[in-house]
Every structure is written in structure tokens, then in C-alpha cells.
Amino acid sequence: MTEDDGSMKFAPADAAPRRATAMDVARAAGVSRSAVSRAFSQTAYLDTDKRDHIRRIAAEMGYRPNALAAGLNRTRSNLVGIVAGDVGNLYDAQLLSRLVSGLTAAGKWPVVLDGSVGADRLVATDIFAYPLDAMIVRGGSVDPVMVDTCAKLHIPLVFLGCVVDAPAVDSIVCRNAEGMARIADLLLNRGRRRFAFLGGPAQWASQQQRLQGLCDALAQAGLQLIATESADFSHQGGAKVARRLLQDHDLDALVCANDAMAIGALGVARHDLGLNVPADLSITGFDDVDMASWPCFDLTTACNPVEETVAGVIELLEARLATPSAPSRRIQIDAHLVRRGTH
Amino acid sequence: MTEDDGSMKFAPADAAPRRATAMDVARAAGVSRSAVSRAFSQTAYLDTDKRDHIRRIAAEMGYRPNALAAGLNRTRSNLVGIVAGDVGNLYDAQLLSRLVSGLTAAGKWPVVLDGSVGADRLVATDIFAYPLDAMIVRGGSVDPVMVDTCAKLHIPLVFLGCVVDAPAVDSIVCRNAEGMARIADLLLNRGRRRFAFLGGPAQWASQQQRLQGLCDALAQAGLQLIATESADFSHQGGAKVARRLLQDHDLDALVCANDAMAIGALGVARHDLGLNVPADLSITGFDDVDMASWPCFDLTTACNPVEETVAGVIELLEARLATPSAPSRRIQIDAHLVRRGTH
DNA sequence: CTGAAAGCGCTTACAG
DNA sequence: CTGAAAGCGCTTACAG
What we know:
Two copies of one chain form a homodimer.
Chain A: H1 5-8, H2 22-29, H3 33-39, H4 48-61, H5 67-73, E1 79-84, H6 90-105, E2 109-114, H7 119-124, E3 134-138, H8 144-152, E4 157-160, E5 169-174, H9 176-189, E6 195-199, H10 205-220, E7 227-230, H11 235-248, E8 253-256, H12 259-272, E9 282-284, E10 301-303, H13 306-322, E11 330-333, E12 336-338
The structure holds a DNA duplex.
């Protein structure tokens, strides 16, 4: 009964309205489809007046060249996958956030994937149906199935947190052992002798390196760890295991594999066990997340610098895209000591 | 000099190796391109043996249908933009993380954008060149330019944190005023009378509603706020402004607009000013981030439930995609009281 | 300087 | 049941 009836046959109410295409703009502007395409190209020749005219009409119609269609003709999609780490982990959350900003600034669009589902399931999803320019994986251990899948699809990989030896796979890692040795030396110089290590999950390469760095530094001083236990890198897990360690052993230094667990341990030591940190006991972290500097924690830790890491990822990415066949690279980042109030 | 010389003319070392296409698989399997396409379609007819044969060869070659090319023929790209909030903010970080998981589970791939650059700049980027199925915006206030841009491109919008009245734009918000009234009632019942409000940036709709809810509840008790100040929703900002408020006024209740600021205020009150919380002073937050439940904080707050919010976003999204022309919807989420140790 | 045409990799009516 | 062809929206040699 309305005036729309005629057209409704062709455009039912529930159809998604179509986005304007170059053809639509060409018709509206009275030019060819090619001219519209050229109006949005940096390199193509087109009369300035004509270009302005086309762009004005396009703006009115809300037209933008469809990147998916354009991508078919190009070699790049500008889409980059990020397999996020455990975002409950504060360091991983900060890293992800900065990575998103860094990639955006580099002209790439980050498609964020939930790494907690595991590589097997990830590989089975249709994210690999998209011609990603690269995949960035944050994780503590290598996923061979991920490496294989990306290799077959010619998707360059950047691993963030562990080293992978495969063609077109680059890595960026922290010098964990050296960072931990700095912490150990600080504590040894302060006179600490009874050390325990509160570690993370064993499959994390960084966890093993941090433990190794600690053990080596202690060995040089003729000491060894009194106890070693593992938690899940979380605040809660750290608190729980720290309680056991502190109750079962007479310690003067509790070295934790990351800040979140150290902060959990700090709460247990001070509030539950009534220990005086740092008078009776040193507690240290690793990473230097934002929270470590809060006055209520003031945590002594080793800084795993996020900005530098992200800059490294971007550098690896751009080099790899420029030269797909280049040999694999590994960037190592120094973790410097951050002396605060808990050692 | 090597046997490869002949082919190198056509494939220079630095060209990105090409991904296998349906044509490549067709040749290898001795079938038509159409057959390959059908082998990967749920609905198309294809002899079972032939399908198995094609899929086996495809697996060997690492072939997957290119989603970008397929997307040209479909109405959906399965790409969804997320304009992330301030990820330094713990609540926003949790929300983003859960949103990524929720969208992935719903078969959508989240492209994460850095909201801190501002809508004007975002709209100018070429992310809108991609035919996004939808855009999810986390933010405290409306960006008209974002709404206009999405409308022209027929990209449905979901606002998360403020209500927008425009066609094909849905919203999901917390019942901020009611949540804050619950906190106020709790404190009034406990006998508090001298209230101050530590708010967030004025342009955030949620901030205004939280303030309003507090004022109304106080008015009903014949009271009004002694002081109101604003910070930036951060821990550090909250600490700084809380110090001023507590030094300048004789308060028995400091109501904060979010948890991060409340935790900052808690540190200042207890450690710097030597106040006894909750004996002398109540401090409350809003959101109930993970950290609020840590024993060292044990913050009384109102829970702004992340899971429920994410479920609501997904529901709005799916309904909108199913019926693009449906009237705009608004979902409201209840913020329930979480009584802990700081009131 | 600009239009018509071919091609990017896929899907899907259309014939057979 | 399956192949050849048209079309999705774009870019870019190729002619003019």
C-alpha cells in the first residue's frame, strides 16, 4: 500500500543494504569505473578536476574502495593475526595493547585470536582462510602445528617469548637468564642466602631460563635453591604457593618468575604471615608491569620492556614482508634491574 | 648455476611465495575448479569419493579457500571491528579480552582498533575500507562522526557504555545510577554521613549516571555531597585526587567512580595518611575488576558484569545481522553490590 | 589523460 | 553429479 511496494520486491526489508561500489560512483559522476578507481590511487594518472569531482561524489555516497576486493589484486591484505597470551596475565595484557597500537601505526590491522584455546583448535578455525600478511604468536612454547600451517600458507610467523628455528619464522625474546642473574646479584649483595624460586608453568621457555639464571648466579656464590615450586603466573596462584613455601622453609629471599605472582606473594607474606618485607625477607618479580610501581607494592623486579619488544616485532615484521626469503632472525631484549622497596 | 635457474626468472627470490589456489588444487586433482570449490562447501553436491580425494590433495598442498575472495560473493566478511577502550583501565582490558573470546566463539574475527587515537582519526584510516560485518565501540560518549561513517557504509554499530539513538545502532549499558544507589544505601545504613565523590572524566555518560545515582540516594536521606572531584579513571590519578580530597575534607565515605581509582585511594588513605579503612572511612569502587577481590584490597564495589555484557553484545550483534532493518535496541545490565572489607 | 578489458580467487546458478 | 561461465568489486596493463 505504500509507495515503496514496487521496489520492495527487489530489496526485501531484511536484506542488508548494499555498500556503494565504484560502479555506483561512476554512474553518479558520469565517468568510467576505471576513473573512480584511479581517483583513489596514489600513482594512477587522472585529471585533477576529475579526481576532485569523483572524490566529492564518493564522499557524499560514503564510498570507499573495498579492501577485500582490492586485496585480491595485491600481494598484501594488511591483516595480521595476533595469538594473544593469557590476558589475565597483566604483562600479556599490556603487551597486547601496545602491539595493537604498534601494528595500527605500521598500517596493519590486528585480528586478535584467543590463544587459550590452543594451537590445534586455532589451526582448525577458518582464520587461516584469510590471507594474513603475518601471524604474531605470544606464547611460552612452540606449537609445531602452527608453524606447519603457516609455512604451508606462506604466512610469516613472529614468535614472542620463545625461539623457533624454522624458515620465515622470526623470534623475539627477553634475556631472561641475564635479567634473573641481576636480581640474584642484588639479593646476594644485600646478604640474602636462603633462596626459594616461585616459578611458572614448566613448558614456558622463559620460566626455565629465569630459573636457570637464578641457579647459575647462586652457584657462583656457592649456594643453591632451598626450594622450588610452580604456580600458574597468576596473582592468586602465586599467593597460594608462596604461602606454602614461606611456611615450610626458613627463607630470606623469595624470587618469583613474574610480577603477578610476586605481588600475590607479597600480600601473603605481609598480611597473612606478618613478615616484614624487606627487613626479614626479599620478594622480587619479573616484567615490571605497571602495577609493580604502585606505592602499595613498590616491587623490586626486572623490566621486560614492552615498548622495545613491540618495536622489535614491528621491525621483524617489516623486514620479513620486504624480503620473504630472508634467513630467520632472533632479537634479544635486555631486562634491566628495577630496584624498589621489596629487596 | 643451480637447477633452479630456469624457474627463478619467473619467481624472484624476494617475491612472497604464492598461496595455493583452487585452480592449483584442481590441476593436481584432475578435476575442475568448481569441483574444488564444492569440496569445501557444506551445501553443494559432490560425489563423496571425489570430495575426499580433493580434500586430501588440498590438505597436502595446504590449500584453504581464500576468505577474502569468497567474501566478495557473500554478504558477510565475518570481520568485526572493536574500538577498544582505555586498556590501561583494568575493566576495559577484561572486557576486551572476553569480547575477543565471545566473538571468536560466535564465528566472528575481531579486528582490534586503538580507541585512544580518537574517532576522527579512526574514521580516516582505511579500516573502513574493509566490509566489516559490524563495529563494536567501547566508550563513554558518542562519536557522531563514527555513527555517520558507519551509517553510510551500512556497518551496524554496537555501543558499549553509552546509549546512541540512531538507526541500526544498538547499545548496551550498565544501570549505573541504580548500582551507585546500592552502594550509597549500604554506606548510609552503616552510618556514614560525610560523603565525597571521586569521579571520572565528565564526558563519560557512565560517570555522570554514577554521580547522579549517588546524589539522589543522598538527597533521599537529606544529605548532599561534601565534595566532588574528577580524575582519569586510573589508579595513579585516583590516588592523587584522593589525597587532596582526604586532606581538605573531613570525610567518612569516599565513593569512587571505578575500582582502579578506589584502589589508588585506598593506598593513599591507609599507607600515606594512616587512616583506618573501614573503621574511620569507607572507600568503594565500581566495576568489580579481578583485582578488587585480592585480599590486599578486598574492595567493596558494584559489579559491572563482564560476561553478561559480552553475551549481550553478541546477542545484539546476531539479531542485527539477522534483521538489519530492525529497530534499535538497548540492553541494560544490573550492577549488583559486592560487599567486601572497605565499607 | 581515460575507457574497455582482463584478471585477482572464489561461488553459484545454468546447462548438460 | 559436474563443468563452463558469469559475477562479486577492485586494479592495472593495454589501447586509444
